């Protein structure tokens, strides 16, 4: 390992639910501050993979390393520390709807605050200033006092990104961050993630539901099918033939397949439970 370069190493990772392997023997090494897109049909194992990295789910076999630390079996404080280093963003934003925006963002500091301070909603002034600065960076500072539920989906997802940044994470894990957004807001949110990656050098791993988004925003694309990695390469290498392999033989892609066709194909699976 080279010091100073962030390395996330996933080694022969498997997750079983009963007889079904959601993720099977997955090995991926990510060096530096890459922006990675993970694509694949519904049930391919994308969410389970991210959840294992963040330790929301435990691996059945294999290991996850970050730098020189194995994070696969961390417990207690060490596990919470790791979870604050790899912030998670969800399709449904997971904000507290009735709470104001700035308090939602300040929730990103929960891991390092005392129970008493949390109980009484006491936040240091410097944290409040930082939360507003982050909201400002994402172009939504004027919404700071509003209830989260009063914001549009695109604004709510930016609040979720602000909450993640409040943790000052090394890695941002985004599970279909734009799947609930209209195209304009999807672009704003993806632009924000890309900018955070470029400016801060944070590693971003995003499960994405359209090939186009992965191609446009990511340096590297990982294709999953039935729990396994079936493609790992650059957007340029992600040809129509490769897309067919990733999404399965039933998926009809011609050279003339448009992004709209693929989006329609993928939309079918979006109706399925996550
Ligand atoms: N908590 C769970 N219990 C049982 N099976 C699960 C659970 N979570 C996911 N699975 C199964 O694991 C497989 C992968 O799911 P998931 O990681 O959600 O895929 P994706 O995010 O690519 O749609 C699916 O077959 C799904 O039904
Ligand atoms: Mg999923």
Automatic annotation (TrEMBL):
Signal peptide: none annotated. SUPFAM superfamilies: P-loop containing nucleoside triphosphate hydrolases. The keyword ATP-binding applies. InterPro entries: AAA+_ATPase, ABC_transporter-like_ATP-bd, ABC_transporter-like_CS, ABC_transpr_PhnC, MetN_ABC_transporter-like, P-loop_NTPase. CDD domains: ABC_PhnC_transporter (cd03256). The keyword DNA-binding does not apply. GO terms for molecular function: ABC-type phosphonate transporter activity; ATP binding; ATP hydrolysis activity. It comes from the Bacteria. One of its GO terms (cellular component) is membrane. PANTHER family: AMINO ACID IMPORT ATP-BINDING PROTEIN (PTHR43166), PHOSPHONATES IMPORT ATP-BINDING PROTEIN PHNC (PTHR43166:SF6). This is Glutamine ABC transporter ATP-binding protein. It comes from Antarctobacter heliothermus.
